[in-house]
Amino acid sequence: MEYTTVIGLEVHAELNTATKIYCGCKNAFGSEVNSNCCPICTGLPGTLPTLNEKVVDYAIKMGHALNCTIHNVCKQDRKNYFYPDLPKGYQISQFDIPLCENGFVEVMLDDEGTTKKIGVTRIHIEEDAGKLIHDDSFSGSLVDLNRCGVPLIEIVSEPDMRSSAEAKAYLDTIKAILGTIGISDCKMQEGSIRCDINVSVMPKGSDTFGTRCEMKNVNTFSGAVRAIEYEAKRQIEILEAGGEIHQETRRWDDMKGESFLLRSKEDAQDYRYFPEPDLLTIMVDPAHVEELKASLPELPNAKLKRYMKDFGLPRFDANLLVENPEKAELFEAAAALKSCQPKNISNWLNGDVSRLLNEKNINLSDTKLTAQNLARMIQLIESGEISNAAGKTVIEEILFTDKSADEVVKEKGLAQISDTSALEAIVKSVLEANGKAVEDYKKGKTNVVGFLVGQCMRASKGQGNPGIFKDLIVKAIETI
Amino acid sequence: MQIDIKHVAKLARLRIEDDQLEKFEEQMQDILGMVENLPEISGSEFGVDPSCPMQLRKDEITPSLRRDEVLKNAPEVKAGCVVVPKTVEQ
Amino acid sequence: MELYTKSAAELSRMLRDKSCSATEIAQSVFSRIDAVEDKVKAYITLTRDSAMDQAKAVDELLAKGESLSPLAGIPVAVKDNICTKDILTTCASKMLYNFVPPYNATVMEKLLAAHTVMPGKLNMDEFAMGSSCENSRFFKTHNPHNLNYVPGGSSGGSSAAVASGMATLALGSDTGGSIREPAAYCGIVGLKPTYGSVSRYGLVAFASSLDQIGPMGRTVEDVAMLYNVLCGHDKMDATSAYREYPDFTANLGEGVKGLTIGVPAEYYGEGVDEEVKTAVHAAIKELEAAGATVKEISLPSTQYALSAYYIIASAEASSNLARFDGVKYGYRAENYNGLIDMYERTRSEGFGDEVKRRIMLGTFVLSSGYYDAYYKRAKLLQMRIAQEFAEAFQSCDLLITPTAPSTAFKIGENVDDPLKMYAADICTINVNIAGLPGLNIPCGKGANGLPIGMQLIGPKFSEATLLKTGACYEKIVGGFGPIPEIRA
């Protein structure tokens, strides 16, 4: 039988406020253990929470971005459970009246720009828990309370996704929106976005959902894709074998590529939610709610459509830019100079620039790259003044030094050799050194020409034009 | 009113010794018994009171505690952290 | 006369006219402590050295001619559920037997800023749960009027210390009557302020929506002086009210002419001893004679308050006390096998029976399937009770009721019967449920020689009215009597 997978997602995003949600401690990642803590966030007896106004603003912004109804009068609730990373024995969250509710987001599914509307059930604010450090060298676990009280929004989707690809598109869109409106750093490697996934399967054509299982501990979007595919397959195998699915919570282990049972429905936790008595009613002036809406920048989907239409970028390329607001901003600034092809700007940003950033694990804003320099370098390539290969050298320099593209080209002698006689000399020596390849070519294996071009490029230290080399090589072999 | 006293104790992370269970249950029954005669009251919303809104805190950093102050009351400390028995994923 | 017997107001005047020093006051109070603390047992921690330092500092400042708060140099002892930086704060629980807060409660900061002198931290029922001080995990406190009797609770250490002259003033906390009932049992004045008027920051929470810190003293004026220091908005407490407060000592002499006193019949029912009713009625008559109008009223939902109270208070307590898990501070069981076992042993060994009973009750009423039947119903009832009071205050300026249904009971008399123990709270809990101010004023003695108290209840933020009514009565009866001789 064929099955349809039904997916709902709960995304937890840490907000990039200056302070924590209920105290004035610094909201920072990577500090020394237990150094961003005070009596309040460590849950000392007698302490009380005070709600950070920025957290409310940020959540409302996200609510607007996801077309939600904003409950400008709402409250917070306690979610009670015991765990060593939760110092108060309860998490302050929101239960029956979330700040934002009943929204949707359009996600783009293919290069033709086909979109699908995914429902957003709610967005609420809550506090993050601390971190447990497991060390095999001794029998206990260590508790670092720095993350306690870091503000989170939880974005809960409707079970509207039908494949891992749709889920991935949704997650990419959410991440891009968080980044674009500037409320979260979205650093997956720092755990600033995490998700729980609800998966069920039903026979194709059915409109009755199957029993769902929840998977926790999914920390990357690629992990989410793997987890969904694994879980759907697991459930289908059970059904095919005549079994039935039990509602349960599972833990995804991305290293092993498997999920494990955490608890069954019978063991479901009883969180004993009740209104947080230490906080009064949250009431946001409706005018302020509207102000926050007006303050939103262009949202990723609109931007995506614009990049595809105005700059002729393929969706994949455009999406890579839109997902990263810093890149998108630089792209637009460089394109606005109108000195080079937007597609080439996009290629460089998504290609070598991204690779270099990843290698060094830094952000674009940590570099010295300017729109002027990037556009100038691409212009030099487009005009044939430097080769594409030389561009790879230039980009490293203009990313990490204050030099201009022209200075780098000059200093490193990267200007393309346009003197044909110099190129012919290189071709001659390469052909002499590679007699076997020349023979092969003559026997009809004409694809060795690529190898020979490569050798010429190397000999010219990248300053030759590969197209010209190719012509010269072919001409030279045929005249031998 | 039947109270699953062992379940409640588990939720509350309390260990009630067997010889105490009955006494606890009886006393809880007594207290809940008083509640049985509460009148049914209509009305749904409590928890929000727009007449009494909360003033929010400005997003401004205030000093944290020194780490030795954070940890000074902890029963067991190692490597700048509080030590607990080995945890498994929740 | 010994300095420890004097009121804060008197001592304040004496300090200013240099007829005594703050050091002499502190010495007198500590000599009283040395003489009777063995019998009364009000203090968990004595902070003699720091208190003497504080007193000395006041003397030096006064010598320099600095103008200090009226309470400068006055000994104010503090209930042990109020966090004091670098001073043990136990909540009278094994759970916090070694807890030394790294911060001060807001009220402590205010006391320090007013240059009061803190002799020590006072005994109480464990985590403020109880009406007799017998639930302290360390020792029982005795009633200074008769050592065989309880001092009331949970602020029993506070009431006993003030009544016996071991402190001029004290801070208590009141969730269901924990300032007023011990004040009544010990024959002193105790104010449970309007919810939101005194910061709760640093008060170890029992039931967050009901808890309030308040002043206890031997005269109405003293209580008004301390309340002047305590009240005010605090940005650390989101539930604290935004408003300006008057000088509560300013209108104490105004009298009661023109005030309408409501007498709610429900507070004078079967459960209340005749001698208590008689004493309170007599006091009301005095006030009527002094110019107040007296009016019979009815608060029919009173009968449900006890149930609503135990549900709401226990529910909040079950959550507030979840942080005591042996991880970050306080007691941790010595032997355990894994995390869950550590939690369960720590909490079972660390908490006493009454605390466990309320945590269990609170956990149950919040648990899945019971929330609507219990917690939600209680919260709705709370709104109705508050509404009834609000209606009563349309025609009354204040209400007068007994504070407790009887005088203090004997130590050990009610320990095995929680319901009977809870009955001591029937007159006071409504005030917390509705967030109102309530003031205990001594009004005579029972057949056993122990004090009787009446409770003055007003609308929110009507402390000034309650205090001036109390002061008027105090003047009529010529004060609330001398510090008792300590005997069994």
Can you walk me through this structure?
The complex is a heterotrimer of chains A (480), B (90) and C (488). Chain A is an alpha+beta fold and 480 residues long. Chain A is built from 15 helices and 16 strands. Chain A has three domains: 3-291, no CATH class; 324-412, no CATH class; 420-479, Arc Repressor Mutant, subunit A (Orthogonal Bundle). Chain A has a nine-stranded mixed β-sheet. In chain A, a hairpin with a 4-residue loop joins strand 13 (248-253) and strand 14 (258-264). The radius of gyration of chain A is 28 Å and the shape is elongated. The mean pLDDT of chain A is 92. Chain B has helices spanning 5-11, 18-36, 67-71, and strands at 77-78, 81-85. Chain B contains three helices and two strands, in the order αααββ. Chain B is flat and about 50 Å long. With 90 residues, chain B is mostly helical. In chain C, helix 8 links the parallel strand 7 (260-264) and strand 8 (293-297). The mean pLDDT of chain C is 96. At the A-B interface, helix 1, strand 3, strand 8, strand 9 and strand 16 of A face helix 3 and strand 2 of B. Strand 9 of chain A pairs antiparallel with strand 2 (81-85) of chain B, so a sheet runs across the interface.
